[in-house]
Batch of 2 targets.
Target 1
Amino acid sequence: MRIAIIIPARLESTRLPNKMLLPETGIPLICHTAEAAAAIMARRPDVFVRVLVAADHSDVAEAVERFARERSLGIEPVLTRTDHQSGSDRIAEAAERLPSDIDAILNIQGDEPDLPPENVLDLAAFAEREEADIHTLVYPVDSRGDRENPALVKAILGEGGRALYFSRADVPFRRADGPWALPSYGHVGIYLYRREALRRFVSLSQGVLERTEKLEQLRALENGMTIRALVLASRPPKGIDTRDDYDDFVRRRRQA
C-alpha cells in the first residue's frame, strides 16, 4: 500500500486564534506536526510516499514551505479553498493533485504534533490486514468521568474492530442488571481512507446522526461505509485545543 499523509491546516480557530502559526517553540505549530509526518515517511518510505499540508491561508502555506526548505524535508504545502466545511473536504481537494499510484490517504490533524509514530505505523499495518473503507484508532476508556465527558468521542466496536457507532454520550446504555465489563473506547481523530472511499465520503450529504452529534465519521456509517478501528494499548497524547494545551506543549519542548 502506498500512502500519502495529508495534514489539514485551517488558520482560524475559535478556541485558540491562529493556532497553526503559534511560534513560541521557535517554529509554528503546524511545522511540528509536518516534521513528525516527514519522520514517519523517512522510517517507511516504501509505505508513506508523500507528505502534504493542505492549508486554507497563504500564511500557513508559506510558513510550511519555508520550514521544509530550511530543513530539507519532503513536505509539500498545498493551498486549498477557504470554504471547506471539514478537514476531510480539505484533504480531498489536496488529494486530487496526487498521482494515481497513491492507494490511500492518511489524515493527521494539524494540532496533533505528539501523535506517536508507532501508532501511525501500526495503523498502516492494520489497514493492510483488515479491509475497510476507512481505518482509525481508539484506546480503552475506563473512568466514568471520561465516559461521560462529551468532549471525548466514544466508539462502539464489533468483531474485528468494525465501528458500529461513535458518540459524545456514554454509550451503550447500561441497565442496572447489564454487563459492566463491556469495554469502552475513546476515539483518536486520525483517519486512513482508501482513495476511492475518500472521494465517496466527501460527495455524501450530512445525515441526521452527523448533524446531531457533530461527528463527521457518522456520515460514513449512515451511508453503509465500513470503518475499522485499531485498539491501542493506552491513550496517545492529546491534541492542542486550548491555550493551556499549547503552553504545556511549549514547556515539554523546551525541556526536551
Target 2
Amino acid sequence: MSRFFSDKFASLTPYTPGEQPRDAAYVKLNTNESPFPPSPKAVAAASKEAERLMLYSDPDERALREALAALHGLTPDEFLVTNGSDEALYFAFSAYCDDRHPAVFADITYGFYPVFAALLSLPTRVVPLREDFTVNVDDFCPAGGTVFLANPNAPTGLALSPAEIERILAANPDSVVLVDEAYVDFGAESVLPLIRRRPNLLVVQTFSKSRSMAGARLGFAAGSPELIADLNTIRCSINPYNVNRMTLAAGIGALADEEYTHRNCQTIIKTRTRVLAEMRKMGFWATESVTNFLFVRHPALSGEALYRALRERGILVRHFGTPALNDYNRITVGSDAQMDTLLGAVRSILEEKS
C-alpha cells in the first residue's frame, strides 16, 4: 500500500473472491455461478437497452421494482434494487449498525459480513455454529444487535425454516434482522411473506445464482417501506444511478421468464442429489445442502490436498483455508458433464491416495 493510505484501513483484510481464470481450460466449480446462460428474454432486453446507453439509468428503478412487486405480491415501495446483493448488504451495515447496535453474525458464514463490519469500524458479535454447522436459534434470541443471517448459509449449505427465523424476529423487535437469501431458490423457503408481519425483517436476494446473471451484478432488498427508505438514503448518498440500464432491463426480462428459472433450478437440484450420493459412496461427509453447491470433506484427504489435486487436473473448487474449514471444500453444482468430470477426477485422486 502507498504511504497515503489512511491508517483507519491499514489493518483491513478485504474479501477474497474465488479464482477467475482468464482462459477456458478449467472446469469452474468454485464461485457458485450457474451452468446455464441467462434467459433469452433477459438477453434480448439488455441488448435492446444497449442502444440507450447515452442516457443515465432510472435512479428510481421503477420498472424493475414493479416487476418484483408483481412477482412477490408486494408493492414497489417495499423493494430496493442494488448493484449485486453485496451492495444491499453494505447499505444495511451502514444504516443499522453503530456503537449501540453491533453487527451479529455466525462465525462460519458469508465472508463479506466481517469485511463490511471492519470497513465501517463497527462492533461485532460473532456467534459460533454448532459442531454440525447448524445455527442454534437460541443464540440469536435475543441477539443484542443487528442480525445478519445467510439462509441458506454459505459455505455450509444449510437453512433455517421460516418458523425458526420468525422466532429470531420476535426475540429482536427493536433490531433489524437481515436474511440473506442468495441461494434460496435451490430448496429452501423464503421469508419474504413475513415482511408485512415483521417490520424489523429485511430480505436480500440476488439474480446471480438462480437467474444466471452473476456478471450483470443485480440484487435487491425487500422490507417495509420505512426500511427501504432508510436504505435509499444511503444509496442516494453514494450513487443514485447504482444499477446500469442494461442490467435493469435484463432483470425485468429474467422476471418475465420464471418458467426458465424454475426449470434450471430443478435441474441443479437433481444434479446435486446425484453427485452428493456418488461422493458419499466414495467416503465423503457432506451437509444436506439446499443450495447450488456441496460442502464436503474426506477422512483420508485434507481439503487443501483435494483442492490442489483437482486444480492440477483442471478443476477449480473453493477451499477457504481457515482453521475451522481446512478439511472442507465447497463445490459448485455445474452441468451434468462438468460434475461427471469432477467425479472421475475425485475417484482417480482417491485411488492414487490409497
